[in-house]
Predict the 3D structure of the following.
Amino acid sequence: MLFLIQDGITNGAIYALLGLALVLVFAVTRVILIPQGEFVTYGALTYASLSAGQMPGTAKLAVAMGVAAFAFDLFVARRALHARLIGRAFVINIVLPCIVLALTVWLAARHPPIAVNIALTLVIVAAIGLFLYRLAFQPLAHTSVLVLLIASVGCHLALQGLGLLFFGAEGQRGPTIADVALIAGPLRFTGQSIAVYAITIAFIIALWLFFGFTLYGKALRATAVNRLGARLVGVRTTLSGQIAFLLASVIGALSGILIVPITTLYYDTGFLIGLKGFIAAIIGGLVSYPLTAIAALLVGTVESFSSFYASNFKEVIVFTLLVPVLLLRSLAAPEVEEEKD
Amino acid sequence: MSERVPVLIFAIMMAAIPFIPGMPPFWIVLLDNIGLSALVAMGLVLLTGVGGLTSFGQAAFCGFGAYTTAVLTTAYGVSPWLTLPLSLLVSGFAAVLLGLVTVRLSGHYLPLGTIAWGLGLFYLFSKLEFLGRNDGISAIPPLAIRSFRMIDPGTIYYAIWIAVLISALLTMNLLDSRTGRAIRALRRGHIAAEAFGVRTPGMKLLVFIYAAVLAGLSGWLYAHFQRAANPTPFGAQAGIEYLFIAVVGGAGYVWGGVLGAAIVVILKEVLQSYLPLLLHGEGQLETIVFGILLVALLQLAPAGVWPWLMSLWPFEPKHRPPDLSLTLPARVRAPDTPDVLLQIDKARKQFGGVIAVNNVSFEVRAREIVALIGPNGAGKSTTFNLITGVLGATGGSISVLGKPIDNAPPQEIVKLGVSRTFQHVKLVPDMTVLENVAIGAHLRGSAGALSSMFRLDRADEASLLAEAARQIDRVGLADQMDQPAGSLSLGQQRIVEIARALCVDPTLLLLDEPAAGLRHMEKQRLAALLRQLREGGMSVLLVEHDMGFVMNLADRVVVLDFGTKIAEGAPEAIKTNPEVIKAYLGAAA
């Protein structure tokens, strides 16, 4: 009983992180980020590959996407090209990912400490997230939520396919972050689960500080409320979108690193994990961070109970949880007239 | 019938394709699959592109159609032709049940709700014993006309494409009708449509059922084409793919669904059969390329490929002018119209702690122009919303024609002869001025969805359009009649809203800032029109900020400030009222 709750809370903490990222991205860019699950997979498997002394394909992907992003930047600015702009685009899109690739190649064979692997993984996946926004979503920023959603599914398909290409169909596990274990009464807290709790809480606090007390955080919130208004007061909405994707990919990768020592991850596992974070985000109404975090813990707990008592129906139970919640939310909040298109 | 000519040419082309010598059977199979997907996508066009309701669950309705015929033909030996109406009925009935729950979901909850029951139904299909669980049902008999059995892909090809063409024609007919205009107005929000008597929940349910029946038809054809049914093609994956098809092709266009089906089906086929040859079949290359191409297509044509192609078409579509000799019977009026049309008695509206309208009382009598003025935030538009039933009053009473309205919905208020315009223009920008105005006459027509689909509504439709054209002419926009409403200037759009409100044949017209954005001459013309309406027996209540306009036009002026009535009287008296001057210019003035 207690054990199930504990397990549920560990999973729930991960879902909470992912749910937060989804809410963040949706609020700022109106993109329902289906590829969030791929960020998890990429993070987990990149970390696992690095730990096993292999060279992860994601580092090369980051370079390829950077080159494409550079081409996009040049194309958009083709009528007003000047050296500074080209230089900046070159440094961000080409030099940075190349440095990361070089570092990865150099370090992969040398079995660096865990912290270095984690940092490297985060940088690689963050770059992929940033370039994903630049390539897929920035040109579509003015379109409807539906078009963005379809594009998002397209990205999910492409990234999942690439995941299979990079990591193969075999599942992988990574080394734990901390090997200590605490015994408290009937419960045994592994170092890993403590790390999960600590990092989740730290991230929630960091996000709260970021949004409440920094200029960029406030700019992001402004973009979320009113894109046009934010632009008029000088917030660059593309920058907001890039920051949102950067944060989402870092959060996704971190979640992946946290769970890969606990469960075996396959190239397509991320999707299902992301989906559960998504359910939490929906229960939170895609706007509320605290509600999303609470809902995520609930989803995790329901999942761990149903996988214990009725493992066949595990996914179904979690997904059908949505229907009454949606109905309740719809009834509680009467329809508001939206200005669409 | 000029818009039907391209359809006819397309039909002849499709009929000829199987006779092309050396046509590989593989391409015929592909065309069969395109037709099956096109049917589902067409339903999604109506549901998502036109009606604004995104659904991921359409594949489940295909499942209902397919399993109905599969069970009845294999276990009970019923003829496939007899199961066709039953398949459609079952899908439609399932849509009623799911729709009653789902269409009430608002905003982003709706698509998520469809994912939820889409997954649930897929699970149900794969667990039920009499549906054959995961293996499904096989050995379904083929379609047959006497001894002619449609077994090979080349023969069922005709059944599929006849279904596609008929469905496309019926859908086009439906969209070009009284019901169609109501459906097309849904996407722009429900307030404007409801103000003219459209029952928006009913309309949403209608398109939901329509889309489900088309999906059911596709499922029925699929079952007899594959001669087997299993849960896989009816899962969430397929549901998402149908949405791809509609969005890529152009979610707002009937033929966008067909084009989208062709693009997606062919693309997938080409990728699956040629990519592995090129690159020695590593991983899931086709999904990678498919995903990237999908995003690229959306970036090139965000509204879909069909409208993009159409913009290259050099000929302007011709609009037939409405036959102005047709008349529409006047709205049924109460036999004895009292002198006081609108009586507002201590009306009150609170939003939490804010009192937007604070015990306001005034009346509008027959043949009278009353102006409601006051600084921004005085509660003028809220008062309008209370009168027209958009908002329920917190207290007090509002009576129209002597009867309290008791927070009746907007659809009932408009029946009493109260019609309105909006402060923020609520027209459908991609519909023509004529079509927008015709929504105003919604309650004066009677043709339903079915008669529209089969073109039995033409007499009703022609007189509706004639009435709309007359009102457009009356407000002086006859030259703009066939332009999309969104292409007009904001001032002209406000005038279009007046024409739409006039189509109700109202006794009381509520105008929310009608003169905003008009030039001097246009304002004079508007004032002349309103005077002329008053002479014709109509009353007007208007909110306006242009004092010159108001003071020259109104018989009486009511002044609100912070939700409270501070003055009422003839324009001359209001101009010199110290309270009013203070409210507008501050205490020092």
